[in-house]
Amino acid sequence: MMHGGDIYSNDIKVDFSVNVNPMGVPELFDGIFNDFDSYFALYPEYESKELRTKLAELYDLNTENVLCGNGASEIFMAIAHAIRPKTALIVAPSFSGYVWAFDAVDAKLTYYVTKAEDNFSVKDDIVDIIENNTDIDMLVFANPSNPVGNYIDNVLLDKLLAKCEEKEIVVLIDECFMELSDYSQNTSTDKIKSFDNLLIVRAFTKTFAIPALRLGYILGSDLELMKKIRRQLPEWNVSLPAQRAGETVFSLKGYLDASREMIIKERLYLKNELEAMGIKVFPSSANFILIKTDIPLYSKLLEKGFLIRDCSDFHGLKKGYYRIAVKTHEENEILINTIKEIIR
After folding, report:
1. For residue 165, what is the enclosing H or E element?
2. What phi and psi values does residue 310 have, to the nearest 5 degrees?
3. In which element (H, E) is residue 76 found?
4. What domains are defined for the chain?
5. Which stretches does DSSP call E strand in 159-220?
6. pLDDT digits (tens, 9 = 90+) for 316-341
7. Is the pTM of this model over 0.85?
């Protein structure tokens, strides 16, 4: 299984393979990081109650409707072990971490494969698939999607959630890139109270450029299911620095607004420059873009110290598809100039 961010076995100048916020770590976190040595002798707060309380207030939920994890990956694994679905339907292409989690509980995996000619968008026929397949007991997808960066239509999403509720299918929506997307109000968090079969996972990792801290959370209204998921998590699964960072972010609206503004501008720059070189760029509303080209960009850029995400291992994709993170303008410009050199 491939992931982005393999800077340890490569000599990398700039890593375009991981989709963290190009604004970098908020200055507000400086105090937390400066106090690292004072945390070493302390246990984290049990069950991250303070952070969960703040998250619950943000979404107008109860603390019991929120669980925190050591990144989204730990949460996906906990969900898989709690629910143990017989058959999970995964919208593809998508993050390989879903497969990693559900393989661990021997779930049968089936795929709804979106098509390049539709810009990899989910279509209405997914509702019919849910209706006609009696084996599916879990549906998994990202919104915005990864590695494409597009949204599922809101009207279609409501139909899908209603149909899954009728069929007693648990729906897991990965919203890890929602806060860095153009239409962050497209979130499904307001649907939590309406659908007991809905779970939403988010992460601080990408949003606040802190992947090393590992911090994510899950929202769900079915308290019995949330208790089952909690039982699959270690007692002190979130570090104290991660808890403190998470408790700090609620005053960072200006940072997020500036981040989205920067991402929109820089994503358009990358799109225009790449298309001018004859490279196919798929529509994205996230902090990354999916491209297709016959040029062996991954290996050519790696030779020059740039890492992008080779997407050939994503279910539904093949050789020639690459994901590029949106970075600062200076970094994006260096990447574009390097690709121009490769093409010449």
Report:
1. helix 154-166
2. -75, 120
3. helix 72-83
4. 14-24+253-343 (3.90.1150.10), 27-251 (3.40.640.10)
5. 170-174, 198-203, 216-220
6. 999 999 999 999 999 999 999 999 99
7. yes
